[in-house]
Amino acid sequence: MSDDGDAQRKARQLFDTHVRPNYRLDDIKLVGEQLGDDPAVLRALHARCLAEAQRALESGHHTEARRIGNLARQLQRLAKKAGPR
Fold this sequence. Notes:
Structural class: mainly alpha
Number of domains: 1
Order of helices and strands: HHH
Shape: globular
Largest sheet: none
Number of strands: 0
Helix content: 55-70%
């Protein structure tokens, strides 16, 4: 359970630091080394991006929702490459 909490915390930190304030970020690889390759963190960040994309869509921010949704798909692919659950 502690690992899940750590993954959630790391995902929240990455999202708040790199995704939310940078409206031009359209490729998750631009985050660089800080992203890491921990599948749990990548899955948690993927889930957070999906939730934020849904929230943006409901608010009428369609371009922002699409950008974050694209980042979520990239994270999903990276998590699959990184390994099993």
